[in-house]
Design brief:
Helix 9 (about 175-185) packs across helix 17. Among the domains are: about 190-295, Roll (Chitinase A, domain 3), CATH 3.10.50; about 300-405, Chitinase A, domain 3. A hairpin with a 2-residue loop joins strand 1 and strand 2. It has about 450 residues and is of the alpha+beta class. Strands 4-3-6-5 form a four-stranded antiparallel beta sheet. Strands 8-7-10-9 form a four-stranded antiparallel beta sheet. It has helices at about 5-15, 20, 25-30, 60-75, 80-105, 110-125, 130-140, 145-165, 175-185, 205-225, 230-235, 260-265, 320-335, 340-345, 350, 370-375, 405-435, and strands at about 45-50, 55, 190-200, 250-255, 275-280, 280-295, 300-310, 355-360, 385-390, 390-405, 440. It is built from 17 helices and eleven strands.
Length: about 450
Amino acid sequence: MEQPSSLTRAWARRARALPLLLAMTPLGLLALLPAPPAGAGQLLERIVAVVNDDVITLTELEEELERIKRRLRAQGAALPPDTVLRPQLLERMILTRLQLQRAEALGLRVDDEDLDRALRDIAQRNGLSLEAFRRTLEDEGFDFATFREEIRREILLARLHRREVGSRVQVSRAEVERLLAERRSRDQDTEYRLAHILVAVPDAASPEEVAAARRKAEALLERLRRGEDFHELAVAHSDGQQALEGGDLGWRRADELPSPFVEPVRGLEPGQISGLIRSPSGFHIVKLLDKRRSGPRHLVTETRVRHILIRPDALTSDEEARRRLEALRQRILAGEGFAELARRHSQDQPTADAGGDLGWVRPGQLDPAFEAAIRELPPGRPSEPFRTSFGWHLALVEGRRQRDDTEEFLREQVREGLRRRKEEAELEAWLRRLRDEAHVEVRLEETPAEGASHRG
């Protein structure tokens, strides 16, 4: 399979930035927001924590407390007393403030373009346009501008964690393969397609008969190792019931295999042949033809696509870029080759040299706007010009195919699981160091409504 272009790699990096935010339900998203402003009297402002050169006020703490309590109620969880929640919450706010300070010191930021893209993705995951999503929030009494800045902060923290923690976490191929092997050894949903040759031993066979059968089986095994065809030897020499089918036993789960076959078969890769296997019936030689998971398959639709990119700049307006692509589209409809025009006009240089070829791409590899534009595009017909975060495009779908990528999918699941496990441990250690190295003063004194609560 072709390597992804710079366009596909760039979007894949961005798409990994917000896995949790994009999975949120509307209820989870509302819980991100501070509570709508109440009409009751205002709290007397005072400082409850000093964090380096910054402060956290009692108002900020109480607003965050109400948000957390609202989320816990929505989840049906029992509410601890405020005297328990407040110090826990303040400590979390201190850690958040320290992380934001670190991000600022490193020059990390989230521009409006990236923020708008993330908001559109969140809205789409909830089945809404961005405008409809904004109205939904406002109908519930929440300020969209506040929500927008909360999302900006979450993206910024995700980027900080990738830089400070994720960059130090490595998952080796050996670790992935070892965990996969452990899982496969435990599960029973692997199916094996086997062929076998049986050299039978009669009941109550004499030692001489057993030795003769062994010699015949060893001779057949030696012929197979020299490269002779298993199917042909099974038809000619096997005493098994499936001899005329080349010894093919069909697809069977591990728990359906003859017990003497189980351990030898688990050590084989497709195409490999076992040594001699003894059973009460005689001597067997087993060939693993193939193996598969009997559980649900993971199928993806891959699309072979070409594109032409024109980026607006100081000399080329959005409208001018669109007009230039529309003119190229008319030339393609008139019979000119898409690939040749891409070589001459596309500004995505890595793909322009290949006639605009992005190769076979799967969902999630391209900018969502690009994927939306080609999702229903008939093969062989150029798209209308469309806009993505990279600029203006013209696209041509050359084909679609279904591919079973279950093994790759499972391997990626294992890799991501290992990475998350390591990142969580590394993040905890990093946060402890960040807290220990900071100047923090906690001033969580007794509030008018409750007894004293303090956490240093």
